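To close the chapter, one final illustration. This time we ask the reader to focus less on the individual chains and more on the assembly as a whole: which components sit near each other, and how the overall shape emerges from the parts.
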Amino acid sequence: MARAERLLTLLQTLRRYRRPVSGAALATETGVSLRTLYRDIASLQAQGADIEGEAGVGYVLKPGFMLPPMMFSQEEIEALVLGSRWVARAAEPRLAGAGADALAKIAAVLPDDMRETIESAALLVGPRVSSEDKADLPAIRKAIRTERILELTYGDERGAVSVRRVWPFALTYLEQVRVMVAWCELRQDFRHFRTDRIIEMAPSEVRYPRRRDVLLKEWRDQQGIPSEP
Amino acid sequence: MARAERLLTLLQTLRRYRRPVSGAALATETGVSLRTLYRDIASLQAQGADIEGEAGVGYVLKPGFMLPPMMFSQEEIEALVLGSRWVARAAEPRLAGAGADALAKIAAVLPDDMRETIESAALLVGPRVSSEDKADLPAIRKAIRTERILELTYGDERGAVSVRRVWPFALTYLEQVRVMVAWCELRQDFRHFRTDRIIEMAPSEVRYPRRRDVLLKEWRDQQGIPSEP
DNA sequence: ACACTACTGCCATAAACTGTCAGCAGGTGC
DNA sequence: GCACCTGCTGACAGTTTATGGCAGTAGTGT
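The assembled structure is written out below.
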């Protein structure tokens, strides 16, 4: 049983580094010989981990995560499936695709009878969200993840166009539209931006000076929104 | 590595039987000695599997499923999380709770930085579904899973009350209401029942004579709905 | 009382894992 | 070309772990 744990530790260690890490470094960190480390890496790759090793450079783990074995109840699986379905319908194409992929991965490992259940027990027929986003939603999500400043050209409900620098920290999925929540440098306050009204958007490499979760908390307090589940 | 696979096989074998199975039977089926089987069961239980063993009876696996280790991309995790959030908001309390539980399980094993991302990158602020269901939705889902006939007292949009026997095979989650799709013995056709208009409901132990997935397919064909992802 | 079962401890054997050593391959810098 | 760093593979002995058989305890249903 010690081995399985070590492999998970190794994965998390690999995730910590963004730059390539040498096998020797990983070996000392996990307290194991170099030879064994190579074997461990091979095991992880065999299990599907996206680890790339290049001679003279080191190892990099492609962004993502390996879930350890986990037990889900019947209803929890139904919830995951129903949720993924909803995402596959309601989110923008790229995230929707990810939802469908996740769903397929889960369905692939379920026993036959359960897969059948899943294919019928939960349907989503809600009108497909049709508002077309001009904005690049994956780019917004990435900016949120990495806490980067966005350069925004935005047309509000009255048609007035403005250019702003904003600090995006959340993206909300409403029934018909999606709204980016950000701190606006122009207004020095929180602002909501409907993604279908974003005319142009330039992600920058500049990190904004505050932490995303703090911004989120302050915004929630201001809005009177209780913290999420 | 053979051991991990054997444990998964053992789980699936356990799932196949509905009745308690003796350890000896499981041992021969997985090709292992009885002593080792006991150790394997202990391992699975240590990993969180809901296996119950009773002396003189055998082993039973509580309904549910253990996901093997799986790799998810960043976006797939975001999709799963966003979807679970939506379920936690939009579904009826019990399924919503399951969504929250699933979310918590996933969050618990994610590395810290990713957990932070998840706590802010996707929010759902859509108006909480407020229509109160008089119907017992978990019971409906169970009837669907097990293909049981439901005895229904239903009030339609004009207030006319009727009593019917129906064969439920799907449950759709719309924005404001939930709709059970079933074959109605009274009308000899497919009918949709808003769950908030179900006045009374009696699950029976009688299995309906057709297969759920076939009903679903016929209904889809009749409605002109393309098959789900 | 009896049959059946889960469960535990012990121990010898079998299998797997691990570390050390050696060597090959690919890329970088001198 | 040469030294150097790195990934990667094979072979072998030592160590650890897993396994199977055996004996024994205890709970359940007939």
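The first strand of chain A starts at residue 51 and ends at 54. Chain A has a mean pLDDT of 85. With these observations in hand, you are ready for the problems at the end of the chapter.
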